[in-house]
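Before relying on records like the one below, remember that each one covers exactly one chain. Contacts with other chains, cofactors or solvent are not represented anywhere in the record.
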Amino acid sequence: MPKMLVTIGVLIFGAVIPILEISVTHVFNPEWTPHMRFHEVWQLITNCALAALSLWLVWRRGQIMLASIIGLCVMGGILASHALSSLYGGSLTYPGGLERNILGLHITEIIPLVSVVLFASAIVATRLQVREHH
């Protein structure tokens, strides 16, 4: 169970988000400067590499805790960036972008929250499994 929780969380930042962002809204956005696009691609490559590392840790090494912590860093970073956005003028959305709210939260808040819950749940489940074996 913990392996699947981490895998789902990792696939969100390692596959789903890149698929969504390699588009005219982000990587190929004509309104973005080349330097902005550079940082976007850098972030996507880094996150995909961390996702691959996390999957290897989970499925080859059985290191669910470390993979979960990596996932918490990546997806928690989105939430921290959102929390600090008023300090640097950032936004979760772009003009004309997807405006989906569920229970008062924007979809771009929900996705990282779900991932953080998955990683935290994997950590708790792993700790409980370790306790049961002792």
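The first strand starts at residue 101 and ends at 102.
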